[in-house]
Specification:
Blueprint lengths: L1 H15 L1 E4 L1 H6 L4 H6 L4 H12 L11 H9 L14 H11 L5 E2 H12 L9 H9 L6 E5 L5
Antiparallel strand pairs: 1-2, 1-3
Helix pairs in contact: 6-7
The structure holds zinc ion.
């Protein structure tokens, strides 16, 4: 009986666990978040980004990391080409987190936003277990568990 109780509480806490894009993961894995995120920007933001990269070092800091996420949240994620429903599930999850300003989201929230994104069943089986497996197997997007976060 005790085992069943543990399993129940385990799966309840699982769906409460939140995921986010861990920028430190990129540094630890010698991957460039800036390049990855730049390729998800709309053409206007992409150009603005390239120009600021060319400026001399005494110009204001180039938007990076969280600034790049803010740019996507406030601009690029609202462009129709950003929300392409034909993308791979992991790519969509990455974009969902970018569009949310990298606010940690639970599996349940990710699932519901993903289904909204795809706009109906397109043949892919997407449920909380599938998402959890995908997220745990991720070695490309740096999406990591943020732990159980109490709402502020
Ligand atoms: Zn943009």
């Amino acid at each position: 009986m005790e085992q069943i109780d543990e399993r129940t509480s385990q799966s309840e806490s699982d769906s409460q666990q939140k995921y986010f894009i861990d920028l430190e993961w990129y540094q630890g894995n010698n991957r460039s978040f800036d390049v990855l995120v730049q390729n998800r920007m709309c053409s206007t933001s992409f150009k603005g980004w390239s120009i600021s990269e060319d400026k001399s070092s005494n110009s204001p800091a180039t938007p990076r990391g969280t600034d790049a996420i803010a740019e996507i949240e406030q601009c690029c994620s609202r462009k129709p080409e950003f929300t392409n429903p034909n993308l791979a599930v992991m790519e969509i999850l990455f974009r969902i987190l970018l569009a949310a300003g990298n606010q940690p989201l639970s599996i349940r929230e990710l699932e519901s936003r993903l289904n909204e994104w795809i706009g109906g069943w397109d043949g892919r089986v997407i449920n909380e277990n599938v998402l959890k497996r995908l997220l745990e197997g991720d070695h490309f997007y740096g999406i990591r568990l943020a732990g159980v976060v109490d709402p502020v």
